[in-house]
Write a structure and sequence with these properties.
The protein contains nine helices and 14 strands. The protein is an alpha+beta fold.
Length: 294
């Protein structure tokens, strides 16, 4: 299931306000612009799609296509794409595209475009794969409390995978106080506990977690919450560090920063994902401007 919709916009100006943006309208990250070589690859696929959809004989002509009129038995109709541009957010996946289509049937120049819009969901727990959940969180981080706790543990594991850690999620109901194990440098075994809470974490949770680190022979720990910590939690964590069991406290803001870095690290800048995407080829395209050729 995709978190993006292309079928329409609640605001008729949404497309015009999206085209040309260099920063993501959802998470604020700088958009990635596909280079000319990859754009040329997509251009060719668009021409192939256009030939298939018209069901007419066609051949390359002046950087575009020329079609044969079956009644006149002559090469008469031309079609050319210019200025194809795609920008995509490496963090949440939002994207927009525009191009100019030039035809001589009728004689006109039409600028068309498409931009994705984020869907609204009551729950994020049904999303697969995890990448879609992390994309949604980047775009709407306030929805982190709508994810089931068990699912959120997998989200956190995915974030730390993107940061270079090898993670293992434990059984949800029999985890001995450790939700995720991570392999750190110098053979360190890092235990992680995840609390998808709205209220601040109390000091007793940190004390309990410190005990779980010792029981499970962890070298150090990371306590993660979707909220923040009460006074005393940092002092409790420091006492465990003095006893050889350092505990890093990660709050909602820290987790969002880690999520953003993780998404950028794992960003795939290949244009192949757009090759078979009908939304960018022909469906859901909206006219931005149309001019007749004199």
């Amino acid at each position: 299931m995709s978190i993006w919709d292309y079928s329409g916009w609640g605001d008729e100006n949404f497309l015009k306000n999206s085209i040309g943006k260099k920063l993501c309208i959802y998470c604020g990250s700088r958009l990635y612009k596909f280079p000319k070589k990859q754009i040329e690859k997509l251009n060719q696929h668009m021409y192939d799609t256009h030939k298939w959809r018209t069901s007419m004989d066609a051949k390359e002509y002046e950087g575009g296509l020329i079609f044969k009129d079956e009644f006149e038995d002559d090469w008469m109709y031309t079609f050319r794409i210019e200025g194809l541009t795609i920008r995509i957010c490496p963090s949440c996946g939002w994207w927009w595209s525009e191009r100019t289509e030039i035809t001589n049937w009728p004689y006109e120049v039409e600028k068309v475009g498409v931009a994705s819009i984020l869907k609204n969901f009551d729950s994020l727990s049904t999303f697969e794969p995890i990448e879609e959940v992390t994309n949604y969180l980047m775009a709407k981080y306030e929805y982190r409390h709508h994810i089931e706790p068990e699912k959120f543990e997998n989200v956190v594991a995915s974030i730390y995978n993107g940061l270079g850690f090898k993670t293992r999620v434990t059984s949800y109901h029999k985890d001995n106080g450790i939700d995720i194990y991570m392999d750190g440098d110098d053979d360190k075994l890092i235990g992680v506990q995840v609390k998808r809470y709205k209220n601040k974490i109390k000091t007793e949770y940190i004390r309990s977690f410190g005990g779980a680190l010792m029981i499970n022979d962890c070298t150090e720990g990371v306590f993660i919450t979707t909220s923040n910590y009460q006074k005393g939690c940092e002092l409790t964590a420091k006492k465990f560090e003095e006893r050889g069991k350092p505990i890093k406290l990660v709050n909602a803001e820290n987790l969002f920063d880690a999520l953003k870095i993780s998404k950028i690290n794992s960003f795939d800048n290949s244009i192949d994902k757009f090759i078979n995407m009908k939304e960018i080829k022909y469906s859901h395209l909206k006219t931005i401007r149309r001019d007749s050729i004199p």
